[in-house]
Specification:
It contains 14 helices and eleven strands. By secondary structure, it is an alpha/beta fold. It has one domain: TIM Barrel. The strands form three sheets. It has a four-stranded mixed β-sheet with strand order 9-1-10-11. A four-stranded parallel β-sheet has the order 5-6-7-8. It binds ligand V47. Ligand V47 binds next to strand 6, strand 7 and helix 13.
Amino acid sequence: MIDLDDLSVKNLVKLYDYDLFTLGNLADDIRQNLHKNKVYFNMNRHINPSNICVDICKFCAFSSHRKNPNPYEMTKEEILSDTKSAYERGAREFHIVSAHNPNYLYEWYFDIFRTIKQKFNDIHIKAMTAAEVDFLHRKFNKSYEMILNDMKDSGVDSMPGGGAEIFDKEIREKICKGKVDSDNWLKIHSIWHNMGYKSNATMLFGHIESKEHRISHILRIRELQDKTGGFNAFIPLLYQKQNNFLNVNNFPSGIEILKTIAISRILLPNIPNIKAYWATLGLNLALVAQEFGANDIDGTIEKENIQSAGGANSKKGLSKEELIFQIKDAGFVPVLRDSMYNELTSF
Ligand code: V47
């Protein structure tokens, strides 16, 4: 095995040259030490208040640009009604992210969070990607600190990992020019962590990036985690290819996808959870990934707009019963967790 203490990209990219089972065994050892035979999931609801966006990310099929001609803005009443019905079905985490809508006033965001929290005070709000924070910073001339404080004061409990894509500058120029840059993505999470809050980190892979870009991305997350300890989970998001403007011809094989998950587990010993997000991987591969370093598959979601717009089979979410059945069937112990990975019930 290569020297894992040599944290150069040139050295660590050689991990991809090992066969899948060598990497899988190494990743599974780390996973077993941390989580034994458990697979975590939660009862959550995704809410995307609008798809109208000033930015044009070429990989995105959700925003109302060109290929998706259905712009929408949910009213506050619609958001509250979705929250209420999901709450009644048992959802306790609300993952609220929007496109970068130029019509919203600054207060719109915080008013929504405050209203939801007042009505449902035992829920967890995971909201606002670093890309949205950066969008508000530029549009309303507010500092990151001010915006993050307003999030905290209006009831946001944690930040999701979206908007990270791939940190490499040249790839970012090609796929999401104009959106938050990598230094600022990391800076926003760092400030949030230093305020005492947690967040997640993602990596969008399987498009025009190289293996070196993935390794370098993972190492930058690791470096920030060494300083703050604020990341709860790392989520490698597999690129979905339909209905967008990124011309991609080479897609990673199942083996390369699993290797990427195993390598994430191996290179991020300081992040407790690796999420194999079933919405991008499909439930079957997400379950196989649990044998290759992952320990979480996300949750019931209920309504998924972003990945399903790109072709994923995740539009309607999955029931709690189905998740439990499938996790058991794969030979693991399903554990219902809260948003901070406290164990609620194991089945
Ligand atoms: O940042 C957009 C990605 C992300 C596509 O923190 C695409 O727990 C694949 O970040 N193919 C948003 N991915 C979703 C996200 C997320 C999801 C679940 C859990 C958490 C968490 C975070 O979706 C964006 C972007 O990287 N995305 N388009 C696409 N065509």
